Amino acid sequence: MNIHHLELFYHVVKNEGITAAARNMPYGIQQAAISGQVAQLEESLGVALFQRRPFSLTPSGRKLYSFIKPFFDNLEVMAQEVRGGVAQHLRIAASEILLQDYLPELIQETRKQFPRLKVTLKEGYYPEVVRWLEQREVDVFLGLLGPNSSTGIHALRLFDLPLVLLVPGQSSIQSAADLWRQDHIEEKLITTPSNQVVCRAFEEGLARHKVDWFSGIEVSTLVLVETYVVKGYGIGVTVGVPSRKYHPQIRILPLDDFPRPAFGVLWQGFHTPVLDHFLKVVRQAAEREVPGGKHASPEPPPGHGPTQPASRRKGTPKVKP
After folding, report:
1. Rounded mean pLDDT of the chain?
2. Quick one: average pLDDT of 17-43?
3. Contacts of 46 (CB under 8 A, 6+ apart)
4. What is the mean pLDDT of residues 32-51?
5. Residue 174: partners with Cβ closer than 8 Å, 6 or more residues away
6. Please, what's the largest Cα pairwise distance for the chain?
7. Which of 30, 72, 208, 229 could form a disulfide with 236 if both were Cys (CB 3.0 to 4.6 A apart)?
8. Is the pTM of this model over 0.70?
9. Mean pLDDT across the stretch 249-255?
């Protein structure tokens, strides 16, 4: 068997299709070339290795993939060890806020122990990062954690973050209770996608209050939630990040009786010295931000206390962005 054909087959299976494999290959190669060379592999073996649409492995494909997967999974790790004795490449997934405000310091601290450290950063949120970890596209994820049912992925819970509402400064809404008392919540709700941790926790909190309030604008990141609130498009839901400075034209309304998403780290079971040291650096930074692992809270504006329970209210019908 041609070893290059096996490599292409590995990437096709890892990305669940030839089109996705062409987009995510570590080097440039055309989709047609991948298709042709994998077809040559199948011809040389005399069997079909996978179904194209929808993608699924045949029994022969599963057998071959299980044989070559450990080799290609660990190829880059071995290359790094051969080059420098210890792998010094760390692929980190995190939210936009963490990538901008917190990761630079963590990376700098890790480099004190590993001066030749190479870092690859990728923006992402739970649950999509679980797939990246399973497919070894990243080594570690730093951010909000959801339920982890994937085998081989470890979780380190560092602290909980409170949910908060971001309200335009000119709004007459002074507390979340002002919203719950409305018969129909007229303000448009700005959220992240419904499968992300913040939106799920917020929906659970609304259910506790027996309030209906559906997303009017759905954005991809928590940074965009704040951006659209500043521009006057509505009220946004996010988490209160310790020491984060919010835009001066918005007010923070605490949601003290809502679920508090967990913040922490996910990583694959495969350990390297640089990953272990990075986890140590992250734990130390978390202890400085939230001593003792206590609940983290932003500093709310004066006079804004916790929300109070309300009777069931009917919100606005769901509006697509």
Report:
1. 85
2. 89
3. none
4. 94
5. 253, 303, 304
6. 75
7. 229
8. no
9. 94
Q: Which residues is 157 bridged to in the sheet?
A: 264
- CA-to-CA separations, 320 to 41, 191, 200, 216, 217, in angstroms, rounded: 47, 12, 18, 6, 7
Give 286's contacts (C-beta < 8 A, 6+ positions apart).
158, 159, 263, 293
Nearest 5°: the CA angle 91, 116, 143 is 30
Q: Which amino acid is at 182?
A: Q
User: Distance between CA 212 and CA 185 in Å, rounded?
Assistant: 8
Q: Indicate the residue type of 241.
A: V
Query: Which range (5-9, 34-38, 164-168, 309-313) has the least confidence?
Result: 309-313
> Domain 84-160+262-293 carries which CATH code?
3.40.190.10
DSSP 55-106: TEE-HHHHHHHHHHHHHHHTHHHHHHHHHHSS--EEEEEE-HHHHHHTHHHH
Least confident interval from 12-21, 130-139, 310-319:
310-319
CA angle 197, 202, 205 (to 5 degrees): 130
Place of tokens 């922490």: 264
> Could you say which of 3.40.50.2300, 3.40.190.10, 3.60.9.10, 3.40.50.300 is the CATH number of the domain covering 163-254?
3.40.190.10
> From 1.20.120.530, 1.10.10.10, 3.40.640.10, 1.25.40.20, which CATH number describes the 3-73 domain?
1.10.10.10
pLDDT digits (tens, 9 = 90+) for 52-81: 889 999 999 999 999 999 998 888 777 766
Question: What is d(CA 262, CA 198) in angstroms, rounded to the nearest whole number?
Answer: 10
pLDDT 10s digits, 96-138: 889 988 999 999 999 999 988 889 999 999 989 998 888 788 9
